[in-house]
Amino acid sequence: MIMKTKKTEDMNLVRRNSDWFVPSTMDKFFDRFFNESFDNVATTFNPRTDIAETEKAFEIEVAVPGFDKKDFNIDLNDGLLTISGERKFEKKQSEKNFYSIQTEYGTFKKSFQLPDNIQSDKIEATYENGILSLIIPKDETKKLASKISVK
């Protein structure tokens, strides 16, 4: 199976303005660090993905905790399987002062070139316990390998 994935940028949580590290007081430094550094929460991220092959199917698992089923978009076009989704950062928790956010927010997009021996109409996708799972059954009638004799 040939796999193609789209690289995304790493999260950048700290604002990098030129005057950022020149605070007039230490209180102002900590206030700016803890209150303003989360304004730039990344807009893309790259979730962990496991890909396996069994005798009867290909299996893809994407670790995306905190999503809803409606947050995903899965397309198959000319053998290219594309999985994308979005999780928005909610700042409604005014009673909390965040000191660290390691949860990934924003959008992701992963693409995989599938082989010709799949049953595209039988692909199943489920989302449970933060894992998006896709089962891509193989078509037993289509063999990708064959023996070629030399004449």
Automatic annotation (TrEMBL):
Record-annotated membrane-spanning stretches: none
Pfam families linked: HSP20
Taxonomic lineage of the native organism: Bacteria, Pseudomonadati, Bacteroidota, Cytophagia, Cytophagales
Annotated protein name in UniProt: Heat-shock protein
PROSITE patterns for this protein: SHSP
Stretches assigned to the SHSP domain: 40-151
Recorded family membership: Belongs to the small heat shock protein (HSP20) family.
Matching SUPFAM superfamilies: HSP20-like chaperones
Record InterPro entries: A-crystallin/Hsp20_dom, HSP20-like_chaperone, Small_HSP
